[in-house]
Amino acid sequence: MQIETSRLRLRRFLPCDITDFAAYRSDREIARYQNWDFPLSLASARRLVGEYSRRDPTRPGWFPYAVELKHEERLIGDVAVHRNPGGLEAEVGFSIARDQQGRGYASEAVLGVLGELFTQGLRTATAECDVRNTRSARLLEHLGFTYVRQHSVFVRGKQERTELSQFTLPAERWETLAQQ
Predict the structure, then answer these.
(1) What are the sequence ranges of the domains in the chain?
(2) CA distance 142 to 147
(3) What pLDDT shows up at residue 131?
(4) What does the pLDDT read at residue 38?
(5) Pick from 89, 121, 2: nearest CA to 53
(6) Which of 33, 73, 91, 101 has the fewest CB atoms below 10 angstroms from its CB?
């Protein structure tokens, strides 16, 4: 279940992650494009970390990988995967602490997870981001995702309608990119 990249370890959430998890989830700049409660209290972070640590990454539904910076052995973000029944399609999402952004960690983490998913038989990866989140959209396109469409959703936690950009990455494109 653990995925290693050159600088990162993608693994289950652990109790030692609670403080760092609450910190980046409570950062207004990180939360502004996400669909989660803000700010995240330590009690809520403790509950979520406990819940996340019990999830099965091979089953349908959301599984969040903790993104750990190896040389510091510290949580810097997460990559969440929502597997559809049958395992042929999955949605990915990511969040990296603001002080760790701009160093390629999000790309490295998402590539690590995608490599694992496509090796396991995934046929299509999808991702969505708020249309205002141009950095995430550029990152997805850099990773090989293709913009598909824009659609509107109601975000309960923020009590607002939000426009999302949807992206897709089929296995055939992934294989072509991996060979380059």
Answers:
(1) 3-179
(2) 11
(3) 95
(4) 82
(5) 2
(6) 73
The reported pLDDT for the residue numbered 57 is 93
158, 59, 9, 171: CA torsion to nearest 10: -90
Given this model, what pLDDT does residue 154 score? 84
Cα–Cα distances (Å) from 102 to 19, 153, 160, in that order, read 22, 28, 29
Residues of the chain under the 70 pLDDT cut: 156-158
**Entry pTM:** 0.94
Angle, alpha carbons 93-81-65 (nearest 5°)? 90
Q: Which of 101, 53, 55 is nearest to 77 (CA)?
A: 101
Catalogue the E-assigned strands of 109-145.
124-130
Give just the sign of the alpha carbon dihedral 148, 152, 155, 160.
positive
What are the distances in angstroms from CA 170 to CA 113, 125, 161, 167?
15, 6, 29, 10
pLDDT at 179: 80
- Rounded to whole angstroms, the Cα distance separating 91 from 93 reads 7
The whole-number pLDDT of residue 107 equals 97
Name residue 127's amino acid.
Answer: A
Amino acid, single-letter form, for residue 146: T
- Beta-carbon count within 10 A of 171 CB: 15
